[in-house]
Design a protein that fits this description.
Pfam families: Glyco_hydro_88. InterPro entries: 6-hairpin_glycosidase_sf (IPR008928), Glyco_hydro_88 (IPR010905). GO terms for molecular function: hydrolase activity. Keywords: Hydrolase. The protein has about 350 residues and is mostly helical. The protein has one domain (about 5-350): Glycosyltransferase (Alpha/alpha barrel), CATH 1.50.10. It has twelve helices and seven strands. The strands form three sheets. Strands 2-1-7 form a three-stranded antiparallel β-sheet. A two-stranded antiparallel sheet has the order 3-4. Helix 2 packs parallel to helix 4, helix 6 packs parallel to helix 8 and helix 10 (about 270-285) packs antiparallel against helix 11. The chain is globular and about 45 Å long. The two termini are about 25 Å apart.
């Protein structure tokens, strides 16, 4: 058995339990060790976990994982506003619209549509896409409307651009393609000569977390398939070269990095590790230079941490390591950390290829 298979199976089981504990068919946002309980369902991350469950289910012949992904997509349509948007935060917070969350749910709806061919999911996806078009700024940016973030345009919204490119492939509507291209153009302008992206912070953190760096890298790398291939991949390469230098041989990478590429935290953001590992594994397949050694180091660190907590139930992947008060999601196992660990390990096992589901 491959060294990663047991971790993959355990991580998928964690997501299944998080869905069971959410009180709905959505997936609980996290498990809180202090409260010793799961949160309510989190629409945003439920959206992009759908593709992970579909891909795993097909690769490992896990029909339950596939069924759960479809249930989650149906739940997302139930909570989608008539205008197409998805609410911010956990579902029990009863918040208004959020740009990024809507984009990530659009991604999950597309994944289920591609798998099932059911127009029910495509119709909801188009509603989300149309809402995003209506709220895009003239310069290609989106101003985040979520109550949990500052009202500003953010570099990591380029992940939405990739999803809109995918929607264009399916419905052949040039409006989605134009919106995606404008956002990629805007995002590339945010990159400094040293590779750093401005406007890429999150919440209380002053500089970019590896989590938000991972979002930008994935958005640009996957958008390169559709638009400005050389520019997008070169932008990603500039960042990965810096990350490679900052990553220890055992895979430790500081969770927050300042604009001069100086690590400023003594903890790793494990979500960011897994995200960046996944992009690093994709680069050669996308036509860029190989960063597989970096990917394997980052994955190794995540698996070492995962293994250290494997005997404690529910295990999962923590927000940060070591667990310290100023760390990212320090007392929680976020479902998005578990999702990206599954993705990155499957990409390593698959040689950087998305064999099943393109998300």
């Amino acid at each position: 058995m491959n060294k990663y298979n047991q971790i993959l199976q355990d991580a998928v089981s964690w997501l299944k339990e998080a869905q069971d504990r959410s009180g709905s068919d959505g997936i609980a946002g996290w498990y809180d060790f202090r409260k010793q309980q799961y949160s309510a369902a989190y629409p945003e991350t439920t959206g992009y976990i759908i593709g992970t469950l579909l891909r795993y289910g097909q690769a490992y012949e896990d029909e339950e994982a596939i069924s759960r992904a479809i249930r989650a997509a149906k739940w997302l349509i139930e909570i989608q506003d008539q205008e197409g948007w998805i609410p911010a935060g956990l579902i029990d917070a009863k918040q208004g619209p959020a740009v990024f969350n809507t984009g990530m749910v659009l991604q999950g709806l597309l994944d289920v549509y591609v798998y099932t061919g059911d127009s029910y999911f495509l119709s909801a996806a188009c509603k989300a896409g149309d809402w995003l078009l209506h709220h895009q700024e003239e310069n290609g940016a989106w101003i985040e409307t979520s109550a949990y973030t500052d009202r500003e345009s953010l570099a990591y919204h380029v992940l939405i651009a990739w999803v809109l490119f995918r929607l264009t492939e399916i419905v052949d509507d040039p409006r989605y393609c134009k919106a995606a291209e404008k956002n990629v153009d805007w995002c590339l302008e945010l990159q400094w000569e040293n590779g750093y992206f401005e406007k890429n912070h999150l919440g209380r953190f002053r500089y970019a977390l590896t989590h938000t760096i991972g979002y930008v890298l994935q958005g640009l790398a996957e958008s390169s398939v559709y638009y400005r291939k050389t520019d997008c991949l070169h932008a990603v390469e500039k960042v990965l070269v810096q990350i490679d230098t900052l990553t220890d041989e055992d895979g430790f990478l500081s969770g927050e990095i300042d604009s001069s590429w100086k690590p400023i935290r003594s903890w790793a953001c494990l979500t960011g590790n897994a995200q960046i590992a996944g992009v690093a594994m994709r680069m050669r397949v996308l036509g860029a230079r190989s960063f597989e050694h970096l990917a394997k180091r980052l994955n190794h660190f995540c698996c070492q941490v995962y293994g250290a907590y494997a005997s404690k139930r529910p295990a999962g992947l923590h927000g940060c390591h070591p667990v310290v008060e100023d760390g990212y999601m320090f007392s929680r196992v976020p479902n998005w950390a578990v999702k990206y660990l599954i993705d990155s390990l499957m990409l390593e096992l698959g040689g950087g290829k998305y064999d099943i589901c393109h998300t």
